[in-house]
Amino acid sequence: MQTTESKWSEPGYLTCEKRWIYFALITVAGFWGAYTYLLRGNVFCNAQTGNVVLMGLALGAGKWKETLYYVIPISAYLMGAFLSELVPNPVKHRLAIRWDTLLILVEMLAVLFLGFLPDSAPVQITQVIINFVASMQYNTFRQAEGIPVATTFATNHIRQIGIGLAREVKRRHTGDYSHREKLFVHLRMLLFFFAGASVGSLFAHRMGGRSIWLTLIPLAVVFVALLKADLGEEKDRMEQKPAGH
């Protein structure tokens, strides 16, 4: 009988589904969260719950201009999801690489541009760009070797850890440990996000706006791995969709 461990470890997953790719991406997201909060307007741009709440608060206080402003980052996030749903098939049919690979290149170019912005530049520029690329990343990288995860925020990972711990209690006398694989993936995703935020805080204080360039390192590693797969060992698997798509 196939065990849970062997199930998740079996070959067949694309490189863009490998867990280490997701650990790298959520580390970058943690860094971006610290970066935008400390240096670009005290906001978290990786998700939109905060912006929706702030827009409601502004509307309730009668601050019409502020209310309208929040439409901009929310729309940027919406547009990121919109485009990431439409472009994957055209990309892989017209180029020799997957959309996932192209997206990482887009993120690298965005990070390169943001690092050149002077500290006096309007914070909204960084906020909107991070909103846009974070949305595309969240909607593109959906499952790490069959386990649904988020690569841009931590809320669901905390929830899934709680669920996993509850199952640990309920199954403690049954010998059923099938839940642990999923639990440990979410735990590691949360830890990598926290590590990214910690590193982001450390270097934001020391390097200022250019600290975002440090995220080019993990992004470049991911990009090279995906590009190598697209042009090499996975060239004949371009029609295979990543799990969750």
From TrEMBL:
<dbReference type="InterPro" id="IPR010699">
    <property type="entry name" value="DUF1275"/>
</dbReference>
<feature type="transmembrane region" description="Helical">
    <location>
        <begin position="20"/>
        <end position="38"/>
    </location>
</feature>
<keyword id="KW-0472">Membrane</keyword>
<feature type="transmembrane region" description="Helical">
    <location>
        <begin position="183"/>
        <end position="204"/>
    </location>
</feature>
<feature type="transmembrane region" description="Helical">
    <location>
        <begin position="211"/>
        <end position="229"/>
    </location>
</feature>
<keyword id="KW-0812">Transmembrane</keyword>
<protein>
    <submittedName>
        <fullName>YoaK family protein</fullName>
    </submittedName>
</protein>
<dbReference type="Pfam" id="PF06912">
    <property type="entry name" value="DUF1275"/>
</dbReference>
<keyword id="KW-1133">Transmembrane helix</keyword>
<feature type="transmembrane region" description="Helical">
    <location>
        <begin position="68"/>
        <end position="87"/>
    </location>
</feature>
<feature type="transmembrane region" description="Helical">
    <location>
        <begin position="99"/>
        <end position="117"/>
    </location>
</feature>
